């Protein structure tokens, strides 16, 4: 058993593109599935929320003349495509996975229900929660915070392409310094964009810590679950 019994892993849709400019990169998908399978075999219960930005983003649609509500629903459908792809890849590497969602899409997506999700998790299945919150104007960041609280996760792991939270964008500022640990209040006071404000507030108010780390480095997810401090922890303590 690793450091955390039950986690909510937040992945961005854009990360699934790998080196591509659109869609799903099969190598990146397999990398993620293999990493997740490893921690499941360690005994960790894993729920996942994945974005849809590799296929469609509601705000991008709005910029092209699609009304925001319709665009957001299109983005939710994109998260379902990504969730199904990850489910298929997990099953290829020997891990059972169920797709639940804020949007019910029969027969492929069952409605999100916290009790059912926890039942699946305790049976050793990965639970992929698609469709955001099921409502427009809410991001998958907010969905990940909400779902993490609903399933009583120990922590929200935000898998990104950087190895933590910095004073400024490390890809643009060579002098940016990495934080090891921040309180929610410190992060808020400094205006650090870790999750959107609604998601951040949900985590803070419900005492759900956030851990930001680089998901794209092989073995990092296992290291985090094993207790290695390789990213940035944001908590109330």
Shape: globular
Strand and helix order: EHEHHEEHEHEEHHEHE
Cα separation of the termini = 24 Å
Q: Which CATH top level class fits?
A: Alpha Beta
How many domains? Answer: 1
Annotated CATH homologous superfamily: Acetylglutamate kinase-like
Radius of gyration: 17 Å
Structural class: alpha/beta
Low-confidence stretches: none
Q: How would you write the strand order of the largest sheet? A: 4-3-5-2-1-6-8-9-7
Overall residue-averaged pLDDT value = 95
Strands, total number = 9
Largest sheet: 9 strands, mixed
| CATH topology call | Carbamate kinase
Number of helices: 8
In CATH, the architecture is 3-Layer(aba) Sandwich
Any chance you could write out the topology, listing elements then pairs?
Elements: E1 6-11, H1 26-41, E2 45-50, H2 58-63, H3 68-92, E3 97-101, E4 110-111, H4 114-122, E5 126-130, H5 140-150, E6 155-160, E7 181-183, H6 184-189, H7 197-205, E8 210-214, H8 220-226, E9 232-235
Parallel strand pairs: 1-2, 1-6, 2-5, 3-4, 3-5, 6-8, 7-9
Antiparallel strand pairs: 8-9
Describe the structure.
- This protein has 237 residues and is of the alpha/beta class.
- It has a single domain (6-229), classed as Carbamate kinase.
- It is 38% helix and 18% strand.
- It is built from 8 helices and 9 strands.
- The chain has helices at 26-41, 58-63, 68-92, 114-122, 140-150, 184-189, 197-205, 220-226, and strands at residues 6-11, 45-50, 97-101, 110-111, 126-130, 155-160, 181-183, 210-214, 232-235.
- Strands 4-3-5-2-1-6-8-9-7 form a 9-stranded mixed β-sheet, with helices on both faces.
- Helix 5 (140-150) runs parallel beside helix 7.
- The longest helix has 25 residues, at 68-92.
């Amino acid at each position: 058993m690793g450091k955390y019994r039950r986690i909510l892993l937040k992945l961005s849709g854009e990360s699934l593109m790998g080196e591509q400019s659109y869609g799903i990169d099969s190598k990146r998908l397999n990398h993620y599935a293999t990493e997740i399978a490893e921690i499941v075999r360690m005994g960790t219960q894993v729920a996942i929320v994945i974005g849809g930005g590799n296929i469609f983003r509601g705000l991008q649609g709005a910029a092209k003349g699609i009304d925001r509500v319709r665009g957001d629903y299109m983005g939710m459908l994109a998260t379902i495509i990504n969730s199904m792809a990850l489910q298929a890849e997990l099953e290829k590497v020997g891990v059972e996975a169920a797709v639940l969602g804020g949007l019910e899409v029969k027969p492929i997506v069952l409605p999100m229900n916290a009790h059912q999700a926890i039942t699946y998790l305790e049976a050793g299945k990965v639970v992929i929660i698609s469709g955001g919150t099921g409502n427009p104007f809410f991001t998958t960041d907010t969905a990940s915070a909400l779902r993490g609280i609903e399933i009583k996760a120990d922590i929200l792991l935000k898998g990104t392409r950087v190895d933590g939270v910095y004073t400024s964008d490390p890809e643009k500022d060579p002098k940016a310094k990495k934080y090891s640990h921040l309180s929610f209040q410190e992060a808020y006071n400094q205006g650090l964009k870790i999750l959107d404000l609604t998601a951040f507030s949900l985590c803070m108010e419900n005492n759900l810590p956030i851990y930001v780390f680089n998901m794209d480095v092989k073995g990092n997810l296992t290291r985090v679950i094993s207790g290695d401090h390789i990213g940035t922890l944001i908590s109330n303590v």
